[in-house]
Amino acid sequence: MRSDPRDYQLAMPGTLEAAISLLASEPQAWTPLAGGTDLMVLYAAGKLSARKLVSIWNLPELRGIDVRPDEIRIGAGCTYSELRRHETVAREFPLLAGAAAWTGAIANQNRGTLGGNIVNASPAADSLPALLVYDAKLVLVSVRGERELPYAQFHLDYKLHALAPDELIRAIRLPRKYAGYFSFARKVGAWQAQAISKVSIAAVAKLDGDVIADVSIALGSVAPVPLRLGETEELLVGKKAEPALAGLARRTVARQIRPIDDIRSTAQYRAAVAGNLVAGFVDSLCAGAGSR
Ligand SMILES: Cc1cc2nc3c(=O)[nH]c(=O)nc-3n(C[C@H](O)[C@H](O)[C@H](O)COP(=O)(O)OP(=O)(O)OC[C@H]3O[C@@H](n4cnc5c(N)ncnc54)[C@H](O)[C@@H]3O)c2cc1C
Protein backbone atom coordinates (compact mmCIF):
# COMPACT_ATOMS: atom_id res chain seq x y z
CA MET A 1 0.00 0.00 0.00
CA ARG A 2 1.40 3.45 -0.89
CA SER A 3 1.91 6.16 1.73
CA ASP A 4 -0.35 9.20 2.00
CA PRO A 5 1.70 12.44 1.94
CA ARG A 6 -0.80 14.07 4.31
CA ASP A 7 0.50 11.77 7.06
CA TYR A 8 4.01 13.25 6.78
CA GLN A 9 5.72 16.50 7.69
CA LEU A 10 8.82 17.75 5.86
CA ALA A 11 11.02 20.54 7.24
CA MET A 12 13.67 22.19 5.06
CA PRO A 13 15.80 24.24 7.46
CA GLY A 14 18.47 25.35 4.94
CA THR A 15 21.41 25.49 7.40
CA LEU A 16 23.20 22.86 9.46
CA GLU A 17 22.62 24.84 12.66
CA ALA A 18 18.85 24.97 12.08
CA ALA A 19 18.77 21.26 11.19
CA ILE A 20 20.54 20.10 14.36
CA SER A 21 18.43 22.49 16.49
CA LEU A 22 15.29 20.88 15.08
CA LEU A 23 16.66 17.37 15.74
CA ALA A 24 17.41 18.39 19.36
CA SER A 25 14.07 20.12 19.91
CA GLU A 26 12.03 16.88 19.91
CA PRO A 27 14.34 13.94 20.61
CA GLN A 28 13.61 10.89 18.38
CA ALA A 29 10.80 12.69 16.51
CA TRP A 30 12.68 13.92 13.41
CA THR A 31 14.48 11.77 10.84
CA PRO A 32 17.10 13.25 8.51
CA LEU A 33 16.34 12.91 4.79
CA ALA A 34 19.39 13.23 2.53
CA GLY A 35 19.12 11.88 -1.05
CA GLY A 36 16.07 9.82 -0.06
CA THR A 37 17.13 6.74 -2.06
CA ASP A 38 16.61 4.48 0.95
CA LEU A 39 13.86 6.39 2.77
CA MET A 40 11.72 7.02 -0.32
CA VAL A 41 11.72 3.30 -1.16
CA LEU A 42 10.13 2.71 2.26
CA TYR A 43 7.75 5.63 1.69
CA ALA A 44 6.63 4.29 -1.67
CA ALA A 45 5.98 0.88 -0.11
CA GLY A 46 3.92 2.41 2.72
CA LYS A 47 6.56 1.32 5.26
CA LEU A 48 8.14 4.62 6.33
CA SER A 49 7.31 4.80 10.04
CA ALA A 50 9.13 8.14 10.56
CA ARG A 51 6.46 10.84 10.11
CA LYS A 52 8.62 13.94 10.59
CA LEU A 53 11.40 14.35 8.06
CA VAL A 54 14.06 17.04 8.11
CA SER A 55 15.75 17.58 4.77
CA ILE A 56 19.54 17.79 4.91
CA TRP A 57 19.85 17.50 1.12
CA ASN A 58 22.12 20.21 -0.25
CA LEU A 59 23.05 21.70 3.13
CA PRO A 60 26.28 23.53 2.19
CA GLU A 61 28.00 22.39 5.42
CA LEU A 62 27.60 18.73 4.41
CA ARG A 63 28.78 19.13 0.81
CA GLY A 64 32.19 19.19 -0.83
CA ILE A 65 35.42 17.21 -0.62
CA ASP A 66 38.21 19.06 1.14
CA VAL A 67 41.69 17.86 0.15
CA ARG A 68 44.18 18.60 2.95
CA PRO A 69 47.89 17.68 3.13
CA ASP A 70 47.37 14.56 5.30
CA GLU A 71 43.73 13.64 4.71
CA ILE A 72 40.65 14.20 2.65
CA ARG A 73 37.42 15.24 4.33
CA ILE A 74 34.31 14.16 2.47
CA GLY A 75 31.05 15.93 3.35
CA ALA A 76 28.45 13.33 4.39
CA GLY A 77 26.07 14.80 1.81
CA CYS A 78 28.41 14.03 -1.11
CA THR A 79 26.75 11.94 -3.77
CA TYR A 80 28.23 8.92 -5.51
CA SER A 81 28.54 10.93 -8.73
CA GLU A 82 30.64 13.53 -6.91
CA LEU A 83 32.80 10.83 -5.35
CA ARG A 84 33.47 8.90 -8.54
CA ARG A 85 34.33 12.08 -10.48
CA HIS A 86 36.66 13.55 -7.86
CA GLU A 87 40.25 13.39 -9.03
CA THR A 88 41.91 12.78 -5.63
CA VAL A 89 39.30 10.20 -4.58
CA ALA A 90 39.73 8.34 -7.88
CA ARG A 91 43.54 8.42 -7.70
CA GLU A 92 44.20 7.79 -3.98
CA PHE A 93 41.04 5.98 -2.85
CA PRO A 94 40.10 3.82 -5.84
CA LEU A 95 38.09 1.38 -3.71
CA LEU A 96 35.71 4.18 -2.76
CA ALA A 97 35.50 5.65 -6.26
CA GLY A 98 34.91 2.13 -7.61
CA ALA A 99 32.15 1.39 -5.09
CA ALA A 100 30.49 4.72 -5.99
CA ALA A 101 30.59 3.73 -9.67
CA TRP A 102 28.86 0.39 -9.11
CA THR A 103 26.23 1.63 -6.65
CA GLY A 104 22.83 1.50 -8.37
CA ALA A 105 22.60 3.37 -11.68
CA ILE A 106 23.22 7.01 -12.68
CA ALA A 107 19.99 8.41 -11.17
CA ASN A 108 20.79 6.73 -7.88
CA GLN A 109 24.40 7.94 -8.01
CA ASN A 110 23.24 11.54 -8.55
CA ARG A 111 21.06 11.41 -5.46
CA GLY A 112 22.40 8.79 -3.00
CA THR A 113 24.92 10.09 -0.44
CA LEU A 114 27.81 8.52 1.43
CA GLY A 115 26.29 9.60 4.78
CA GLY A 116 23.02 7.88 3.86
CA ASN A 117 24.82 4.65 2.96
CA ILE A 118 26.60 4.64 6.35
CA VAL A 119 23.49 5.37 8.45
CA ASN A 120 21.23 3.02 6.50
CA ALA A 121 23.72 0.44 7.80
CA SER A 122 23.04 -2.41 5.42
CA PRO A 123 25.69 -5.15 5.63
CA ALA A 124 25.42 -5.30 1.81
CA ALA A 125 26.13 -1.58 1.29
CA ASP A 126 28.84 -1.08 -1.30
CA SER A 127 30.90 1.81 0.06
CA LEU A 128 31.26 0.48 3.61
CA PRO A 129 34.03 -2.15 3.14
CA ALA A 130 36.12 0.57 1.47
CA LEU A 131 35.63 2.89 4.46
CA LEU A 132 36.77 0.10 6.81
CA VAL A 133 39.86 -0.61 4.73
CA TYR A 134 40.80 3.08 4.54
CA ASP A 135 40.52 3.54 8.35
CA ALA A 136 37.83 6.22 8.00
CA LYS A 137 36.90 8.50 10.87
CA LEU A 138 33.45 10.02 11.18
CA VAL A 139 32.80 13.60 12.28
CA LEU A 140 29.44 13.66 14.08
CA VAL A 141 27.61 16.89 14.90
CA SER A 142 24.76 17.92 17.21
CA VAL A 143 23.82 20.95 19.30
CA ARG A 144 26.43 19.69 21.81
CA GLY A 145 29.18 20.24 19.23
CA GLU A 146 31.30 17.85 17.18
CA ARG A 147 32.78 14.50 18.13
CA GLU A 148 34.86 11.98 16.22
CA LEU A 149 34.37 8.26 15.96
CA PRO A 150 36.47 5.68 14.11
CA TYR A 151 34.17 4.29 11.43
CA ALA A 152 35.08 0.76 12.61
CA GLN A 153 33.16 1.50 15.84
CA PHE A 154 30.02 2.87 14.16
CA HIS A 155 28.02 -0.31 13.42
CA LEU A 156 26.99 -2.09 16.62
CA ASP A 157 24.84 -4.89 15.15
CA TYR A 158 22.45 -5.42 12.24
CA LYS A 159 21.05 -1.93 11.44
CA LEU A 160 22.17 -0.67 14.85
CA HIS A 161 24.69 2.16 15.05
CA ALA A 162 26.37 4.54 17.44
CA LEU A 163 24.70 7.77 16.24
CA ALA A 164 22.62 9.60 18.88
CA PRO A 165 19.06 10.43 17.70
CA ASP A 166 19.86 14.15 17.47
CA GLU A 167 23.21 13.69 15.69
CA LEU A 168 24.16 13.93 12.03
CA ILE A 169 27.22 12.63 10.26
CA ARG A 170 28.92 15.78 9.09
CA ALA A 171 32.00 14.39 7.33
CA ILE A 172 34.11 11.32 6.66
CA ARG A 173 37.90 11.70 7.08
CA LEU A 174 40.32 9.45 5.20
CA PRO A 175 44.11 9.52 5.78
CA ARG A 176 46.11 10.14 2.58
CA LYS A 177 48.52 7.24 3.01
CA TYR A 178 47.44 4.78 0.33
CA ALA A 179 49.44 6.02 -2.67
CA GLY A 180 51.50 3.05 -3.88
CA TYR A 181 49.18 0.48 -2.27
CA PHE A 182 47.81 -2.43 -4.30
CA SER A 183 43.96 -2.27 -4.37
CA PHE A 184 41.49 -5.07 -4.99
CA ALA A 185 37.66 -4.97 -5.05
CA ARG A 186 34.97 -7.33 -6.27
CA LYS A 187 31.18 -7.26 -5.98
CA VAL A 188 29.40 -10.57 -6.51
CA GLY A 189 25.74 -10.07 -7.41
CA ALA A 190 23.02 -11.78 -9.41
CA TRP A 191 23.77 -9.63 -12.47
CA GLN A 192 26.18 -6.95 -13.68
CA ALA A 193 24.29 -3.72 -12.93
CA GLN A 194 21.81 -2.60 -10.24
CA ALA A 195 22.45 -5.69 -8.13
CA ILE A 196 22.61 -5.81 -4.35
CA SER A 197 25.76 -7.70 -3.35
CA LYS A 198 25.66 -11.33 -2.33
CA VAL A 199 29.26 -10.85 -1.11
CA SER A 200 31.79 -8.07 -1.67
CA ILE A 201 35.43 -7.42 -0.84
CA ALA A 202 37.62 -4.34 -0.58
CA ALA A 203 41.30 -4.78 0.20
CA VAL A 204 44.62 -2.95 0.04
CA ALA A 205 48.20 -4.04 0.64
CA LYS A 206 51.64 -2.48 0.56
CA LEU A 207 54.71 -4.47 -0.41
CA ASP A 208 58.22 -3.81 0.82
CA GLY A 209 60.22 -5.68 -1.81
CA ASP A 210 58.32 -8.97 -1.89
CA VAL A 211 57.23 -8.81 1.77
CA ILE A 212 53.72 -7.73 2.73
CA ALA A 213 54.33 -4.65 4.88
CA ASP A 214 50.70 -3.59 5.43
CA VAL A 215 47.33 -5.09 4.54
CA SER A 216 43.62 -4.32 5.17
CA ILE A 217 40.77 -6.56 4.06
CA ALA A 218 37.01 -6.01 4.52
CA LEU A 219 34.00 -8.00 3.38
CA GLY A 220 30.35 -7.02 2.88
CA SER A 221 27.25 -9.26 3.28
CA VAL A 222 28.94 -11.93 5.38
CA ALA A 223 27.92 -10.73 8.88
CA PRO A 224 25.37 -8.35 10.49
CA VAL A 225 27.84 -5.51 9.86
CA PRO A 226 30.59 -4.87 7.29
CA LEU A 227 33.56 -6.86 8.53
CA ARG A 228 37.32 -6.32 8.70
CA LEU A 229 39.29 -9.60 8.56
CA GLY A 230 41.79 -9.00 11.38
CA GLU A 231 42.94 -12.63 11.62
CA THR A 232 43.69 -12.84 7.89
CA GLU A 233 45.55 -9.52 8.02
CA GLU A 234 47.68 -10.79 10.92
CA LEU A 235 48.50 -13.95 9.01
CA LEU A 236 49.62 -12.01 5.93
CA VAL A 237 51.60 -9.11 7.33
CA GLY A 238 55.36 -9.65 7.40
CA LYS A 239 55.12 -12.68 5.07
CA LYS A 240 56.76 -13.07 1.67
CA ALA A 241 54.11 -12.61 -1.05
CA GLU A 242 54.06 -16.08 -2.60
CA PRO A 243 51.21 -18.20 -4.03
CA ALA A 244 51.01 -20.64 -1.08
CA LEU A 245 49.69 -17.76 1.05
CA ALA A 246 46.40 -17.65 -0.86
CA GLY A 247 45.27 -21.07 0.43
CA LEU A 248 46.31 -20.22 3.99
CA ALA A 249 44.43 -16.92 3.85
CA ARG A 250 41.31 -18.64 2.48
CA ARG A 251 41.27 -21.02 5.46
CA THR A 252 41.11 -18.15 7.99
CA VAL A 253 37.95 -16.65 6.48
CA ALA A 254 35.28 -19.12 7.69
CA ARG A 255 36.27 -18.52 11.33
CA GLN A 256 35.64 -14.76 11.09
CA ILE A 257 32.38 -14.47 9.15
CA ARG A 258 28.74 -15.12 10.08
CA PRO A 259 26.88 -15.33 6.74
CA ILE A 260 23.14 -15.90 6.61
CA ASP A 261 20.60 -17.45 4.22
CA ASP A 262 18.33 -14.79 2.72
CA ILE A 263 16.46 -14.06 -0.52
CA ARG A 264 19.68 -13.17 -2.33
CA SER A 265 21.87 -16.13 -1.38
CA THR A 266 22.71 -18.91 1.06
CA ALA A 267 25.17 -18.90 3.94
CA GLN A 268 27.04 -21.80 2.33
CA TYR A 269 27.45 -19.94 -1.00
CA ARG A 270 28.52 -16.75 0.77
CA ALA A 271 31.15 -18.60 2.84
CA ALA A 272 32.60 -20.28 -0.27
CA VAL A 273 32.67 -17.04 -2.28
CA ALA A 274 34.14 -15.05 0.63
CA GLY A 275 37.03 -17.55 0.80
CA ASN A 276 37.52 -17.35 -2.98
CA LEU A 277 37.56 -13.54 -2.94
CA VAL A 278 40.21 -13.39 -0.21
CA ALA A 279 42.31 -16.02 -2.01
CA GLY A 280 41.84 -14.04 -5.26
CA PHE A 281 43.13 -10.88 -3.57
CA VAL A 282 46.22 -12.66 -2.24
CA ASP A 283 46.83 -14.34 -5.61
CA SER A 284 46.67 -11.00 -7.43
CA LEU A 285 48.96 -9.38 -4.88
CA CYS A 286 51.51 -12.18 -5.26
CA ALA A 287 51.29 -12.05 -9.07
CA GLY A 288 52.03 -8.31 -8.88
CA ALA A 289 54.97 -8.92 -6.53
CA GLY A 290 56.36 -11.59 -8.84
CA SER A 291 56.16 -9.39 -11.94
CA ARG A 292 58.16 -6.47 -10.51
C1 LIG B 1 17.41 1.67 -7.27
C2 LIG B 1 18.34 1.66 -6.10
C3 LIG B 1 19.58 1.01 -6.23
C4 LIG B 1 20.47 0.99 -5.15
N1 LIG B 1 21.66 0.35 -5.32
C5 LIG B 1 22.55 0.33 -4.30
C6 LIG B 1 23.82 -0.34 -4.47
O1 LIG B 1 24.13 -0.89 -5.53
N2 LIG B 1 24.67 -0.33 -3.41
C7 LIG B 1 24.36 0.27 -2.21
O2 LIG B 1 25.17 0.26 -1.30
N3 LIG B 1 23.17 0.90 -2.03
C8 LIG B 1 22.26 0.94 -3.04
N4 LIG B 1 21.05 1.57 -2.86
C9 LIG B 1 20.74 2.17 -1.54
C10 LIG B 1 20.96 3.70 -1.42
O3 LIG B 1 21.03 4.34 -2.67
C11 LIG B 1 22.22 4.05 -0.62
O4 LIG B 1 22.19 3.41 0.67
C12 LIG B 1 22.41 5.57 -0.45
O5 LIG B 1 23.75 5.83 -0.11
C13 LIG B 1 21.51 6.19 0.61
O6 LIG B 1 21.81 7.58 0.67
P1 LIG B 1 20.64 8.68 0.71
O7 LIG B 1 21.30 10.00 0.81
O8 LIG B 1 19.71 8.49 -0.44
O9 LIG B 1 19.94 8.27 2.09
P2 LIG B 1 18.47 8.59 2.64
O10 LIG B 1 17.48 7.65 2.04
O11 LIG B 1 18.17 10.03 2.58
O12 LIG B 1 18.71 8.19 4.18
C14 LIG B 1 19.11 6.88 4.57
C15 LIG B 1 19.28 6.86 6.08
O13 LIG B 1 20.41 7.63 6.46
C16 LIG B 1 20.04 8.69 7.36
N5 LIG B 1 20.95 9.80 7.00
C17 LIG B 1 21.26 10.22 5.73
N6 LIG B 1 22.25 11.13 5.78
C18 LIG B 1 22.57 11.30 7.10
C19 LIG B 1 23.53 12.11 7.80
N7 LIG B 1 24.40 12.92 7.15
N8 LIG B 1 23.57 12.03 9.15
C20 LIG B 1 22.73 11.20 9.82
N9 LIG B 1 21.81 10.42 9.21
C21 LIG B 1 21.74 10.46 7.87
C22 LIG B 1 18.57 8.91 7.12
O14 LIG B 1 17.93 9.44 8.26
C23 LIG B 1 18.11 7.47 6.84
O15 LIG B 1 17.98 6.77 8.06
C24 LIG B 1 20.13 1.60 -3.91
C25 LIG B 1 18.87 2.25 -3.78
C26 LIG B 1 18.00 2.28 -4.86
C27 LIG B 1 16.67 2.97 -4.69
Question: What features would you describe in this structure?
Answer:
The chain is an alpha+beta fold. It has 11 helices and 14 strands. The strands form 4 sheets. Strands 4-5-10-6-7 form a 5-stranded antiparallel β-sheet. A 4-stranded antiparallel β-sheet has the order 11-12-13-14, with helices on both faces. It has a 3-stranded parallel β-sheet with strand order 1-3-2, with helices on one face. A hairpin with a 2-residue loop joins β12 and β13 (211-220). The N and C termini lie far apart (59 Å). Bound molecules: flavin-adenine dinucleotide.
Order of helices and strands: EHEHEEEHHHHHHEEEEEEEEEHHH
Biggest sheet, spatial arrangement of strands: 4-5-10-6-7
| Helix segment tally | 11
Structural class: alpha+beta
Tell me roughly what share of residues is in helical segments.
Answer: 25-40%
Q: How would you sum up the global shape?
A: globular
What is the CA-based Rg, rounded?
20 Å
The overall pLDDT, averaged over residues, is: 94
Bound compounds, each kind once, are:
flavin-adenine dinucleotide
Give the low-confidence spans: none
For the sheet with most strands, the description reads: 5 strands, antiparallel
Number of strands: 14
Strand content: 25-35%
